Amino acid sequence: MAESTVQLRMTITAEEYLKSYAGTAKSVHAVTLDGRRIQFPASILRPFVTREGIQGHFAIDYDENNRFSKIEKLG
Q1: Fewer Cβ neighbours under 10 Å: the N or C end of the chain?
Q2: What is the pTM of this model?
C-alpha cells in the first residue's frame, strides 16, 4: 500500500481544543475535503494552536501502514 495524503479544513477554538484534546482525548475524528472520515492523533495539532485555537487548511500524510507520518498547514 502506498503513502497517502488527505486534506481538511479545521476550525477549533482554543477552549474546545484544551477541553477536548489536550487532556483526555487521544484522537481527533474529522471529515476530509473529499468526504472521507479519518482519525488522527490529537497531539499532532499542538504546533498549530494559537490563542484563537486551530484554524486552517491542512494536509496530513499517512505511511503505507496508515499511520500518521506528518502534518502541514497549507493555509
Answers
A1: C
A2: 0.83
